[in-house]
Amino acid sequence: MSQLETAMAIIMKTFDKYSGADSNKGSLNKSELKTLMETEFPGFLKSAKNQDEVDNLMKNLDQNGDSEVDFEEFIILIAAFTCACHDYSSKK
User: Fold this and answer.
1) What are the residue boundaries of the EF-hand domain, all occurrences included (predicted)?
2) Domains of the chain by start residue, with CATH
3) What pTM was estimated for this model as a whole?
4) How far is it, in rounded angstroms, from Cα 87 to Cα 2?
């Protein structure tokens, strides 16, 4: 597999790992999203001032209003973080 194919496979596997904690394996509830963020993006939560920021993230990602983050909504998070990191690194 190419590097990009490998990266895509890792993203899918990571989502599946955390979304499988409850009976709905197709989405992340708030607890699963928080665990994913704490483990995979520890710097983000360290910079978050309070729990409200995590709640706001969940609300902003949950575009269909079902109180969960599905894979498509999760990909928006990954894309946003990737863009932010790219913008930051290109300014250095």
Assistant:
1) 49-84
2) 3-91 (1.10.238.10)
3) 0.79
4) 24
Task: Give the rounded distance of the alpha carbon of 8 from its chain centre.
Answer: 14
CB 69 within 8 A of CB 27: yes
pLDDT digits (tens, 9 = 90+) for 18-33: 998 777 789 998 889 8
CA angle 59, 87, 17 (to 5 degrees): 45
Q: Residue with structure tokens 């209003």?
A: 65
Tallying the residues shown for the chain, one arrives at 92
CA angle in degrees (0–180, nearest 5) for 69-55-48: 115
Write out the two tokens for 59.
């609300």
Which residue from 34, 87, 41 is spatially nearest to 61, judged by alpha carbons? 34
